[in-house]
Amino acid sequence: MKIIVCVKQVPEAETQVQIDADGRWVTLGAGTEFRMNRFDECAVEAAVQIKRKFADTHIHILSIGPQRAEAVIRRSIGMGADDGTHILTAKEGFVEPFRIATWLATCPQAQSADLILCGAMSEDLMQGQVGPLLAATLSLPCTTSVVDISINPENEQVNVAREIEGGYRQTLVLNLPAVLTIQTGINQPRYPALSKLLRANRLPLEVLQADQLEQPQSYQEVERLLPPRKTRDAVFLKGTTHEKAEQLITILSNRSLLT
Q: Is residue 222 in a domain?
């Protein structure tokens, strides 16, 4: 079985950002730290767990981004993946999901995969579109927010459970090849083993130049970025615990929230 896992590098959540002068993207602060998107970490872990059950499984990692994005491919290999491809972008900035899906779909590894795993969304943009768009581009069945996976290699099918509204789960059977987007909580991603990290750091990666791949029609662009608006001021209660409780009761009573 050949599994493709799509991973993304994102900045740490506490990163300070500034909107650029043209208002169309952001500048990250000096010394910004980057890591693998947590949804994608769960996708890598899901692939590694499948590999432990089916020894002939090969895991290939795909990632798009500037030079620094190479780090998440190597971390994935340290977790148990076999190799990877880096689609290298020339600059920072917004890349629309349809373009990302098109670039991923042009990789021969994706076109011959038995199973493609993506995170349910990225932590920075939270659009959740790349996985379904990739499936549509490759004409493959897809399901999102997967929280359980069971492979049936004899029937060339995968049984999945996915989260739906109201805390319920939906069970589906998909024919392979298929695309699944993985929800956090499906597993606990492992730390990369030192021996595998050392191997990952020595392993040559396939590099594709994004500007030499198919450039699809643009369907989405950033018009303008704005910081969140402050809608109200916070009230900080001061004094002893008893005094704070009395202040809170007064505030709630004045707003007719207590009877």
A: no
